Amino acid sequence: MKNIFLILAISLIFSTLSQAGGGWTPPKGGLYLKLSEWWIISNQHYTDAGLIDPNTTSGIFNTSFYGEYGLTDRVAVLVYFPFFSRSYMNNVVSGTTGEILIPGEAINSIGDTDLSIKYALTPKSKIRVAATLTLGLPFGNSSGGTQKNLQTGDGEFNQMLQLDASSGFSIKKLSMYATATVGFNNRTKGFSDEFRYGFEVGAAFLKNKLWVIGRLTGVESFKNGTLASDANSTSIFANNSEFSSYSVEVAYYVTPKFGLSVNYASAFRGEIIFANPSYSVGVFLDLTK
Q: What pTM was estimated for this model as a whole?
């Protein structure tokens, strides 16, 4: 039975679309660090026709480091490094006899890593626009397990160009911001290229100690690759995956520099993706202020 993991950013989605700071860059010498745990466990997925089918319970856990550093007031470097990634699949059991047809397996390794450079195009404008070039480094395992169907990476080197436009504003003394994102992801080794998009709104409470953030993100495949869609459908790195998702994040500054965050994300439309939500928790150090 096929097991199809949701592509998130960030990275997927928990990576570039949701963690790159929008149209703002940190000031020269400014530093932002985050340690987080992200996971998804699923027993159903969207098919290539957008329908929901069951699958053997599978999951992936990423323990990651994310950082931003301002080289100048306009140029920043960013890194997303999942230094521990665990992918697993439960036993496949006969529904009539209870016999284990396929034993469950798990692999542990580091994951695919993103290295980015970001440039502020309009550093003093009311609407801040920034361009980011991200290199996806294939550090993960692309063919783990006895059946070679467990992955912590896709084995391909990709390059993504992203534009973010952000603006801060107030509504009745409530501090808020909004960010719009578009990106083009050039993939190699037969994977289809992708168009990525996102929209984010955040609001501050408790004298800016508590931030509540809502996001809509998506990936659309150009379906121009040579790799079959189901060739690696047991992975979060499946070819021709598409989705639209929403997420909610809450970040709380325990001190002016140190804080905690929790995140919930789920796809409401998709092809070749998990149909279950993902979660993350993290701690961060904000030295950009």
A: 0.91
How far, CA to CA in Å, does 205 sit from each of 24, 202, 246, 275? 21, 10, 21, 32
CA separation, residue 73 to residues 76, 77, 252 (Å): 8, 12, 26
Q: Find the CATH number of the domain harbouring 35.
A: 2.40.160.40
pLDDT of residue 230: 54
Helix (H) / strand (E) containing 117: strand 113-120
Averaged confidence pLDDT in the chain: 90
Paired tokens of 252: 């709380």
5 contacts 274 by C-beta, under 8 angstroms: yes
Q: What whole-number percentage of the chain has pLDDT above 70? A: 90
Tokens matching residue 202: 């955040």
User: With contact defined as beta carbons under 8 Å apart, do 179 and 216 qualify?
Assistant: no
DSSP 35-57: EEEEEEEEEEEE-TTS-EEEEEE
Is residue 9, in this structure, part of any structural domain at all?
no
